[in-house]
Every structure is written in structure tokens, then in C-alpha cells.
Amino acid sequence: MERRRSFPDVLAGGVFVLIGGAFVVGALGYELGTPLRMGPGAFPALVGAAVITLGLAIVIKGFIAGEVVSFGPIPWRAVAVIVLAVLFFGFTVEGLGFVPTSAVTALLTTLASSRVRLLTAVAVAAGLTVAGTLIFVIGLQLRIPLWGPWLGF
Amino acid sequence: MELLDNLALGFSTAFMIQNVLYCFVGVLLGTAVGVLPGIGPTATVAMLLPITFSFEPVTALIMLAGIYYGAQYGGSTTAILINLPGESSAAVTALDGHEMARQGRAGAALAAAAIGSFIAGTVATVVLAVAAPPLARVALKFGPAEYFSLVLLGLIVSITLARGSTLKALAMIALGVLFGTVGQDIYTGTPRFVFGQRELYGGIDFVSVAVGMFGVAEILRNLENEQTRTAVISKVKNLWPTREDRRRMIAPILRGTGLGAALGVLPGGGHVLASFASYAVEKRVSKRPQEFGRGAIEGVAGPESANNAAAQTSFIPLLTLGLPAHPVMALMVGAFIVHGITPGPNVITDEPALFWGLIASMWIGNVLLVLLNLPLIGVWVRMLRIPYQVLFPMIILFAAIGTYSLEFNAYDVYAIAFFGILGYILIKCGCEPAPLLLGFVLGPLLEENLRRALIISRGDASVFLTRPISAVLLALAVAALVVAVLPAIRRRREVVFTEDE
């Protein structure tokens, strides 16, 4: 086994160090307390430090003897469209109401596939909106208005 | 005789008409989900959790449990028919099961899986009924120090079972614990890491994390390489196994059941380990090891039994200690809490009808599975033809609706996107999502018990070592950690040796 660098290892370690670091910085802003009465910051600071340590270990290991993990392609279009669709849902469901929000979210999501045709996308979105409305609003009586106040009626 | 009384209570609860009905619905949905590739039981239970809020607690839990073991079972159908395991534990079944299907013995393979699962499910239900009450009595004596050590042990044992690097699994657990600290501090009420957003005071919802890491991340993985699924589905005929097949099935089913029942209690995916272990055992004890991988019925019957037995006994730590051993069990904790019940040793005395009803329903569920699966096999095969382009928008939309309906909080929906991307990156880097989820669920328990134990001992940290049960649990945790790291050390040694030569 020759020494090899592993990009995924370094990336994963970096993510751990970054998030752990952010939590430690945040935790130090809260009261740490004493062992007898630990403050709200003590536990996150401890665990955050552990995450940083483990992250650093993964980075170092990634430079010396990394794991072979094939990173593969990233479906940028799917990532962008799905994130957008989910955020759209959260942002508008209260204002636009269940039906318009579901329809747009479903339509956006279908576009994540690079091989989708517009007609199929519209058909799938329409079908899912109807199914969602029937299951969640009519069947399960979720208290979400079908048409929201932003639409003016 | 107490056991019989309890089981009688359980069956009278489980046989109530709405409970049987929702057990059936759960098993049906679970099987459907297990059959469909690309959506696992964790994401499904997370999505369907809100549906059960309006039910009686026992009905809700029976249905969720049904989804869980239904999915375990459905995964094996696709593994056998199209070599596409719907769940990780069914990967072993695909080895010999699909080979049998290609030789035209799909019927026998499916029957072996069904019969094995049923026997294993029955035995494991009895194990659960016998083992749970004494364990719960022991657990009642646990103080905060013991609970802290127990949770720590659970988290560490879950690494030994995870595939891939120990270091990454540890980091994922710690990261999960860290995300669990978001929200108001339990003792002082200080809001932590909320960026001034009132919506985050309640913390990050577990369902968002589960749906993001297991649903969205998985969909992104599947969209990397889009290809039409060419499902060459073999015709299923001769469902009833021959006499020779039946003779060869019995011992593997019994061994698999034993292995599965024991390993299912372990946290972090005991059922995956159980099916792999059973396959290895069968191959070793077989007089015809060369047949394995070429369509040996023992290679289907053993792992399938082990898998199903483990699925049942993974309820033991949940019902007796309140500790989830599997991401789906963590969702069950959520379901318990929504209905105002704290999972743990008190459930058995406070809610006997619920406890025994749930156990009895598992046996009923197993009967339903056999009745459902063998005749309906044609329906499941047809479901495999649903195109992914319809499936994944459905998962995303229903996940968003389901998560939103938990609290009517838009931040829960945003969290799906965040954990979806984070999960996708980390999974691509070779980290497994399950440890993070376990850490997230158990993290708050860890912190609460750590702080409470220290308050009781007046700040003396040695309390974890001076209380005997706690000390034993910690020693076991250290041992588990050593076991997890050892193979890596040994492998490195071998590397060093080969380089020297």
C-alpha cells in the first residue's frame, strides 16, 4: 500500500473541523460554569473540541494514508433545484397555501432529473399536487389552507 | 404464568379492529417501501410520522412498527428478483437469492425468505416478551451516572458495527451530538446556537435530520448516474419449496434466528451485522460451501431469518431503556414522546396495554406479512416499474409536507435542505449517516445525565467510575472502542510487514 492522498478524506475532515470550530466559538460565548454546575456552553464546547480533534485526525490521515473513496460526479442541477424546491416550500406554504406551493415544489423537483421532458414534469407535478391534497389536507385534515392569504382571496 | 397473562392482555389489545387494520396498513406500506429502491424505512417512517399523530398511541406505534419490519421484508423481494437490495441488510440475500431466481427457482427463494422470516419473527417476539420485563426492572435502578455510561456505550458500540473508517464514524457521532445541542438549554433556558431565531428555540427536529440525511442525500446519490432501470424480472412460479429445499432450510433458519435475536439488541444496525454473520456461519458449516454464491437456499434462509429476528429484538433497548438501537427506533422515540409517553423502563408498568399490545402486534404483523407477500408477489413486481422520475419528486414533496405539519415551522423544512446537502457531502466522502442520527438523538440524553450526575456528586467526576454498574458499562465502552480500532491496527501492521520484505 503506497502512501496516497485522499481528497474525500481531507474534505470530510475539513467539514468536521469547520462545523466543530463554529460550535466551539459559539459555545465560548455562553457561560461555561463549573463541573458542579455546568453552564450551557460547557457541553457543546467539549463535544465541539472532540469534533475538531477527530476532524484534524481525518485530515492528517487523508494526507498520509487516505481511504480510497471514489468521489464521483456531482449532479449540480439536481442539488440546486432540490434545495430551491425545499426552501420554496418552507418559505411560501403559509402565504401561498397548500395547492400552489405543492405544485411549484413538485414541478421544480421533477426538473432535477436531466432527462425529464416538460410535459412529463407538468403531469407528474399535477398528479402529486392532487395526491398530496387528497392525502394530507382532505384525508389527514392538516390545518394548512389550500389557498393562502398572499393570493388575496 | 405472568407472561401468559401479559400476552393475553397484549393480544386482546392487538386484536382490536383498528389495531389490526393499521398493523395491516403499516406492513403493506412498509413492504411497498422496501420494494421500491431509493427510499429506505427511515425516510418513510419520518414522512409518515405526522399521519399517526391523530391515532391512539398504541395504534400509532403498531403501525410504525409494521412499516419497519415490513420494509425489512420487502427489501428481500427486490434483492431476489432483480438483484437490487432495497435495504442494506438485504444485500446478503441478493448473493444467493438472485442466483436462484436466475436458475428459475425464484419461487423457492421467496418462500425460503418468507418462511424463515416468519419463524424468526415468532421466536424473536417471544424473546422480546421474556427478556424485556427483567431488563426494565434492572433499568429502573439506573441513576444519571449509569444512564450516561449506558448512552456512551451505546454510541460507541454503534461504531463497531458501522462500515468504513472508525475515525469517521466517531466524528459523525460527535457531530450528531453537537447538532443535538441546538435550542434552549434544559437547565438554564439559555438559547444556544439559534442565531436569534425564535423558531430554533425548540431545537432542530429529528425528522428533518432523518429526511435530509436518508431521503434527500440518497436521491442526490441516485441522480448522479441516471440510467433506465432495466428490470429483467424473472417469472415467479413453484412458490412451494421442494422436500429437499425444506430439509435444507430448517437448520439455517434456526441458527439465523438465534444469531439475529442476539445481535439485534446491539445499537447501530445489528440487523445488517446479523445477516452478514449468518451468511458467514452457513457457509462455514455447510458441507457444500462451493454452492454459496451459486444459488444455495441456505444462503437465503439463514440471513433472512437473522435479519427479521434482529428487527424484532432491536425493540428491546427501546422499550426497556429508552435507547434507540436503529434510526427507525429513534423515530419511534419521537412517536412515543408526541403521545406523551417517555420511552424507557416505566412504559411496561405505566402502559402495560401499549407495551404488550405492541409486542403481540409484531407477531400478528408477521402473519400478515406471509399472507400478504406470497400471494401479492405480482403486485410488488409491478411496482418496480414505477419510474424514478415520478418517485423522487413524490419523496421530496411528501417529506416537505410531512415535516412542515409536525410543528408548522418553516425552519424544520429549511433544515431538510441543510442536512440533505451536508449528508450528501459526507456520504460522498465515505461517512455513514446512521451514527450521526444516533448521536443527534442520544446527545441530549448524554448531556442531561452528565450534568445531573455531576450535580448529585457535587462536581466529582469520579462518580462514573466508583458506581459499579457505571464502571462496568464504561469498561465495556472502552473494550468496544478497542475492538473497533483493532482491525485497523492489525491491517496497518500487515502493511508494514509486507513493505519490509
From TrEMBL, chain A:
What's the name of the protein? Tripartite tricarboxylate transporter TctB family protein
**What region holds the DUF1468 domain?**
11-145
Transmembrane segments in this chain: where? 7-30, 42-64, 76-98, 118-140
Q: Carries keyword Transcription regulation? A: no
What InterPro entries does this protein map onto?
Answer: DUF1468 (IPR009936)
Sorted keywords for this record are: Membrane, Transmembrane, Transmembrane helix
Domain of life of the organism encoding this protein: Bacteria
From TrEMBL, chain B:
Stretches that traverse the bilayer = 20-39, 45-69, 108-132, 144-162, 169-188, 200-220, 315-341, 353-374, 386-404, 416-443, 464-489
Q: Which UniProt keywords apply?
A: Membrane, Transmembrane, Transmembrane helix
Q: Where is the DUF112 domain?
A: 21-438
Q: Which InterPro entries match?
A: DUF112_TM
Stretches of the chain forming a coiled coil according to its record: none
Query: Is Membrane a UniProt keyword of this protein?
Result: yes
Source organism, top-level taxon: Bacteria
Protein name per Swiss-Prot or TrEMBL: TctA family transporter
